[in-house]
Amino acid sequence: MDQYAVIGHPIAHSKSPRIHAAFASQTAQPLEYQALLAPLDGFVAAVQAFRAAGGLGMNVTVPFKLEAFALADRHTARAQTAGAVNTLAFDESGILGDNTDGAGLVRDLVHNLQCPLAGRRILLLGAGGAARGAMLPLLQAAPSSLTLANRTESKAAELVRTFGHYAGAIELHASSYCALAGAQFDVVINATSASLAAEAPPLPDGIYAQDALAYDMMYGSSDTAYMQSARAAGASRVADGLGMLVEQAAESFALWRGVRPLTAPVLTALRNELRPA
Ligand code: ATR
Q1: Which of 43, 53, 54, 193 falls 20 to 30 Å from 170 in CA-CA distance?
Q2: How many CA within 13 A on the CB side of residue 95?
Q3: Is 178 exposed, middle or buried (0-12, 13-18, 19+ CB in 10 A)?
Q4: Residues near 169 by beta carbon (within 8 Å), at least 6 away in sequence
Q5: pLDDT at position 200
Q6: Atom 11 (ligand 1): residue with closest C-alpha?
Q7: Whose alpha carbon is nearest atom 14 of ligand 1?
Q8: Is residue 107 a contact partner of residue 247, using CB atoms and an 8 Å limit?
Q9: Same CATH topology for 2-98+243-274 and 102-240?
Q10: Domain 102-240, what architecture?
């Protein structure tokens, strides 16, 4: 059996082994996928040991995505622009680093949630690693505008500068939260880690356009703080990031195996488990 793994610290909570086992059985691919806990100062050694034992690829999660970027010999364009790697593929010529998070987000929005992005006004909340990873795939989806708002506005401005030359005709803006007052958006994506602290970014009233979708990259057994605040503020649809998790996994699987698994049954199974009826 071909060997793959997800590596992180902590890792016990990871749903990736279940997701990839389901993809493997659905596509009849002969592979095994395990979870590896690396010591905080032992990421590179753990990857090298896994590769030396015949491993073909890894997913990388918190807190190692920057170290994985540094370790890779070559990068896909989306990993290069994200500045972080969540997928490693090993072959004789070295280590390829990819980043499937942003593509997973866009696929969840467009295919699973039937929320088109082309020509629409997107608001991205946050300017850390999660936001940065989403930038190129969101710009490639050709919205009419992409506004980045962050608690520390200078970080949003820096991301806008970094991605300016990918924007073409797309209006790209940086903003503070309070300066959003008076603007409206069709799609609002929370890429902050505020939900981990049961908090929501402090958005002004009235930012959700008619039929707007409010999306949180986080997920849990109940609605996140951001989802609750968006609903209370009039967003007509809210969604969490469970679909993004499954879609980024499918992108990694397709990179490794050349086969794209069906995500819907896996997403349904995880959803039922997370929120039993
Ligand atoms: P990640 O890799 O998950 O993006 P990160 O790089 O540490 O993590 O970035 C965290 C993001 O969440 C940042 O945009 C941060 O805002 P600041 O840049 O101002 O720190 C944002 N964030 C974290 N907690 C927040 C909160 N309670 N309210 C609003 N934004 C928050």
Answers
A1: 193
A2: 23
A3: exposed
A4: none
A5: 97
A6: 192
A7: 126
A8: yes
A9: yes
A10: 3-Layer(aba) Sandwich (3.40)
Give residue-wise pLDDT tens across range 154-212.
999 999 999 999 999 999 999 999 999 999 999 999 999 999 999 999 999 999 999 99
CA atoms within 13 A on the CB side of 117: 27
Please tell me if the CB atom of residue 197 comes closer than 6 angstroms to any atom of ligand 1: yes
Q: What is the mean pLDDT of the chain?
A: 97
The pLDDT-based confidence of 142 (bands split at 50, 70, 90) is: very high
- Alpha carbon of 109 to ligand 1 centroid (Å): 22
| Ligand 1 neighbourhood includes 155 CB (under 6 angstroms) | yes
- Is residue 65 part of the annotated active site? The answer reads yes
Percentage of the chain exceeding pLDDT 90: 98
What is the model's pLDDT at position 15?
97
Which two three-digit tokens encode residue 165?
């030359």
Helix (H) or strand (E) holding 265: helix 264-274
Which stretch of DSSP H or E encloses residue 264? helix 264-274
Q: Assign domain 2-98+243-274 one CATH number from 3.40.220.10, 3.40.30.120, 3.90.550.10, 3.40.50.10860.
A: 3.40.50.10860
Determine if ligand 1 sits within 6 Å of the CB of residue 199.
yes
pLDDT in tens, 47-72: 999 999 999 999 999 999 999 999 99
